[in-house]
Design brief:
Length: 115
């Protein structure tokens, strides 16, 4: 009995990070769209980066890739800094209004594939 309690506790600890992270199934890949606007907030941190941008009079959260992938593909932190204009292409969230998962971003004069 005791070992089953330990196993249950261990399983709960392992599953917790997965619950906190966005699942890609939360985005509708049948509804690709593009928005462009100025960055009003930016994060180049784990588990993934993000930019908040103004578009159409609304604030959008664009979920990016992990910093290691962005860096490897040539997207620098300064490319998505507050005040820069970016174009993001991706899929809308099924759960959160004005949130999207980004497949590619155009920033700093270049287009970068994130997935």
């Amino acid at each position: 009995m005791r070992s089953s309690l330990k196993l249950a506790a261990f399983s709960a600890v392992i599953a917790t990070p997965a619950l906190a992270h966005h699942g890609w199934s939360a985005y509708d890949s049948s509804k690709a769209f593009v928005i462009e606007g100025p960055v009003v907030e930016s994060s180049y941190s784990n588990p993934h980066g993000s930019v908040f941008l103004q578009h159409g009079g609304q604030r959008w959260e664009a979920v990016l890739a992990p910093p290691s992938r962005m860096s490897a593909r040539g997207l620098k932190e300064e490319d998505i800094a507050v005040g820069k204009t970016v174009k993001v292409e991706g899929y809308p969230s099924n759960r959160t209004k004005n949130e999207m998962r980004v497949e590619r971003i155009t920033a700093g004069g270049k287009t970068v594939e994130l997935r």
